[in-house]
Amino acid sequence: MLFNYFVYIVTNENKTTLYIGVTNDIQRRLSQHYFDSQNTKKSFAGKYNCYYLLYYEGFESIEEAIQREKELKKWRREKKDKLITSFNPDWEFLNDQVI
Prior knowledge:
alpha+beta; UPF0213_domain; GIY-YIG_endonuc_sf; GIY-YIG nuclease family protein; GIY-YIG_endonuc
């Protein structure tokens, strides 16, 4: 991957809950979400078993990535759904693409 930072959207198995985050290591972050969901359940993603990757964007700077994360978090669910569908029409879990 050519980018240093990523904004990503993960969901649970039934695709009912979305979590938006930012990271500099998407593989490690997905592993952390999975571990938390199976063990401590301390984070939002862990409590709702959100570790299935649906969407991601790459950025060269952390400032850009954080700005985009904040923008997406303000969106209504319908707009987030449209963004995911434009990137991943079948809402397939993309974890294998980044690992």
